[in-house]
Design brief:
Low-confidence stretches: 1-11
Strand content: 15-25%
Organism: Flavobacterium weaverense
Protein name: Pimeloyl-ACP methyl ester carboxylesterase
Structural class: alpha/beta
Pfam families: Abhydrolase_4 (PF08386), Hydrolase_4 (PF12146)
Largest sheet: 8 strands, mixed
Length: about 290
C-alpha cells in the first residue's frame, strides 16, 4: 500500500463566495484551478462535536497515537471494556464519535468499540488529509489494538475499510454504510459541486496521479469488494443526496459473500441512527 492518494466522498455545502472564486480562477488558468481544487479536495471541515455524541466522548478512553507510515497523529477512542472489539471508521469531515448509536448498541450486547478521529479530523492535528491516511490509520490501529471481530465504516470510512481489507486487515465481517464507490465518479461530483467545467475533473485526477505516482481509480470500492472473501453487509439509502444509491448497489454486485440493505428517506447521515439499520447491523454480526 502506498502512503498517498486522495479519494473521498465530499459532503461540502459550497459557500457562494467559494463558487465565485473558483469561476474566476478557472478563467485565469486551468493549472491554477486544478491546484486550488486539489487543496479543497484534501481539506476536511472540522465540526464541533454535537451534544448527541458527548456521552460517548465522555465515556471513552482517549489517547493520541502515532501512525508511523504517514508521520501523523490521531486521537483514538476506546469505548467499553470487552475483549470482543469492533472497529468504527467515520467519513469525510466526521469524528470518532459519529457512529455513537451503533457503538452504544454494540457495547450493550457485549462488544467494545475502537474508533478514531482521522488525520485533520475532530481532535486530531493537521489541516489536510487523504484517503490512504485513513487506510494507514486502520492498519496501525489493527497492529496495536487488534484483532477486531468486525469493521464498520461510513461513507469514506466504508471505502477505507474495504481498501484496508484488500491491504491485509483481518476481520471476520465488515459493514459499509453510505460508501462511495468509483473514484472518478467522486471527482466528477466534486467538480460539479464547485460548478466547474467537467474537464477539470480529469485534470484533477491527473494532478493527483502525477503527484502520488498511482492510479486513483485503483482505490475504487468495488475493486476492493471484488477481492473480499469475508461476509460484507452494504447499507445505503435510496435518497442519499451525497453518495448515490447506485454506489452501494455496485459495491454489493462485486462481493463474493455480500448482503444488501436499501433504506428510504434517511439520507447520508440519519441512516447511522436508524433503528432498523442498527438491528440489521447487530443481526449480521451475530450470525
Amino acid at each position: 500500500m502506498t502512503k498517498n492518494s486522495s479519494v473521498h466522498t465530499q459532503s461540502l455545502k459550497i459557500p457562494k463566495i467559494m463558487l465565485v472564486t473558483c469561476k474566476l480562477i478557472s478563467l485565469i488558468s486551468p493549472k491554477l484551478i486544478t491546484l486550488f481544487a486539489s487543496k479543497l479536495f484534501t481539506t476536511p471541515i472540522k465540526h464541533k462535536i454535537p451534544k448527541r455524541e458527548l456521552d460517548m466522548d465522555r465515556k471513552s478512553t482517549q489517547k493520541l497515537i502515532n501512525i508511523p507510515e504517514i508521520g501523523k497523529e490521531i486521537v483514538l477512542y476506546q469505548y467499553g471494556d470487552s475483549k470482543k472489539k469492533i472497529l468504527l471508521v467515520h467519513g469525510w469531515s466526521g469524528r470518532g464519535t459519529q457512529l455513537f448509536k451503533i457503538a452504544d448498541e454494540l457495547v450493550k450486547i457485549g462488544y467494545s468499540t475502537i474508533s478514531f478521529d482521522a488525520p485533520a479530523h475532530g481532535k486530531s492535528p493537521g489541516k489536510m488529509t487523504i484517503m490512504t491516511d485513513f487506510i494507514s490509520s486502520i492498519m496501525e490501529i489493527d497492529k496495536q489494538f487488534g484483532p477486531f471481530e468486525a469493521a464498520i465504516g461510513h461513507s469514506l470510512g466504508g471505502m477505507s475499510v474495504l481498501n484496508a481489507i484488500k491491504s491485509g486487515l483481518k476481520v471476520n465481517k465488515a459493514i459499509v454504510i453510505g460508501s462511495g464507490d468509483i473514484v472518478q465518479d467522486i471527482l466528477d461530483d466534486f467538480v460539479a459541486k464547485l460548478e466547474l467545467k467537467p474537464n477539470i475533473s480529469t485534470l484533477l485526477r491527473l494532478h493527483f496521479e502525477k503527484k502520488y505516482g498511482e492510479e486513483m481509480n485503483s482505490y475504487s470500492a468495488y475493486i476492493a469488494a471484488a477481492k473480499a472473501t469475508i461476509p460484507v453487509l452494504v447499507i445505503h439509502d435510496h435518497d442519499d443526496p451525497e453518495v448515490p444509491v447506485k454506489a452501494g448497489i455496485h459495491i454489493h454486485k462485486y462481493l463474493k459473500n455480500g448482503e444488501l440493505m436499501l433504506t428510504h428517506g434517511l439520507g447520508h447521515r440519519k441512516i447511522l441512527g436508524n433503528n432498523a439499520v442498527i438491528e440489521k447491523t447487530i443481526a449480521f454480526l451475530d450470525k
